[in-house]
Amino acid sequence: MPLYKTITISGHTKLLIWKIEESFDELFKDTPLTTHCLNRVQGMKDDLHRRGFMSVRHLLKELGYTDFDLYYDEKGKPHLKDGKKISITHSFIFSAIIVSEEEVGIDIEMQRAKILKIASKFTTVEDYRSLEGEAVLIRKLTMVWGAKESLYKSFAEKGVSFLQHIYVEDFDMDILSTTAIVNYKGKSETYTVYFEEFEGFTCAFALLNRKIA
């Protein structure tokens, strides 16, 4: 059972990361699914996607939940039936969940050169041109992208633009945290974003600080 890492952020917030090494059949065996989720996973063509989906159910099990404790609202945002907040992510060979009594968001991204081609869609690339070396630039941009993805998941409003509505304050990559604000249609939320890096991947998770109506 490759539970890769558990991070206890506070007494009411926990993050779990899974390294996906099992086959789909191993992950699927003895793992109860709702009819909706069973249909979803059976309809997936990509094996790694299917394994990522199932690994999330094993992460839920680590916290005492099953697929039947999870539901999605009309915006596609996941919720737990006991009222706790949850966010889910999976990328290639890693998946993760974060569960809290407070609003949260999480994202995992592989650090790869592809980020350079899409950077202008989510940030002002010129802000990072002072960084020395392509590898450092890829690392920083992946952190910013992951931060914005985690914020987007938490804020959960259609129409939010990564470039126009989500601001991530510049940060020292050695500190591995920053603050961020989402402003959209008169609604503003302020977050603290943290980063974990491992095996060429970046995990960003956002915790809500203050909500302004």
From the N-terminal CA to the C-terminal CA, the straight-line distance is 43 Å
Proportion in helices: 25-40%
Largest β sheet strand count, sense and barrel closure: 5 strands, antiparallel
Query: What coarse outline follows from CA principal-axis ratios?
Result: globular
Assembly status: single chain
- Look at the structure and name the CATH superfamily of the largest domain: 4'-phosphopantetheinyl transferase domain
Order of helices and strands: EEHHHEEEEEHHEEEE
Main attributes?
four-stranded antiparallel β-sheet; 2 domains; Ribosomal Protein L22, Chain A; five-stranded antiparallel β-sheet; 213 residues; globular; alpha+beta; 5 helices
What this model shows, in words?
It is a single chain. The protein is of the alpha+beta class and 213 residues long. It folds into 2 domains: 3-102, Ribosomal Protein L22, Chain A, CATH 3.90.470; 108-212, Alpha-Beta Complex (Ribosomal Protein L22, Chain A). The protein is 26% helix and 36% strand. The chain is built from 5 helices and 11 strands. The strands form 3 sheets. The protein has a 5-stranded antiparallel β-sheet. The protein has a 4-stranded antiparallel β-sheet with strand order 1-2-6-5, with helices on both faces. It has a two-stranded antiparallel sheet with strand order 3-4. A hairpin with a 2-residue loop joins strand 1 (3-10) and strand 2 (13-19). The mean pLDDT is 94.
